[in-house]
Amino acid sequence: MRKHPSTSWLVGWLVGAVLTGCSDREETWPPPPQDRQEQRLIEAARRSVERYDGWTQTAWVVERYEGQWRVQAWKIVNPQARGRMQCVPWAVRGIIFDGDANLIAYRNHL
């Protein structure tokens, strides 16, 4: 017969998950560009977002993506909020670039 986890263990796990999700990490989102390459990618993504969507307030996240680069563009809808709370999940674009910051794909979602 299989035993169920105790209620106190489950409550402790849930509290830990909530506290982890509300850490200072949220306050520093989006992360600042790490180097000149990331700054170049953000500038290229900014031009694409202005062209395709016309967004003026945007948060940027740069990451390696399947051997290329993906810049996440999050539309800021609540500038008074902190971190990801400034944005909404349905207003995000995934912009794919090669190593020379040439646009490969512009996606309406991640």
Can you offer a commentary on this structure?
- With 110 residues, the protein is an alpha+beta fold.
- Helices cover 29% and strands 30% of the residues.
- It has two helices and four strands.
- It has helices at residues 7-21, 36-52; strands at residues 58-65, 68-76, 87-97, 103-107.
- It has a four-stranded antiparallel beta sheet, covered by helices on one side.
- A hairpin with a 5-residue loop joins β3 (87-97) and β4.
- Residues 9-24 have low confidence and may be disordered.
Mean pLDDT, as a whole number?
A: 82
| Helical content band | 25-40%
**Strand order, largest beta sheet:** 1-2-3-4
Give the terminus-to-terminus CA distance: 42 Å
Strand content: 25-35%
The helix/strand series, from N terminus to C terminus, equals HHEEEE
Low-confidence stretches: 9-24
Q: Would you kindly provide a brief summary of this structure?
A:
By secondary structure, the chain is an alpha+beta fold.
Can you lay out the helices and strands and say which pair or pack?
Elements: H1 7-21, H2 36-52, E1 58-65, E2 68-76, E3 87-97, E4 103-107
Antiparallel strand pairs: 1-2, 2-3, 3-4
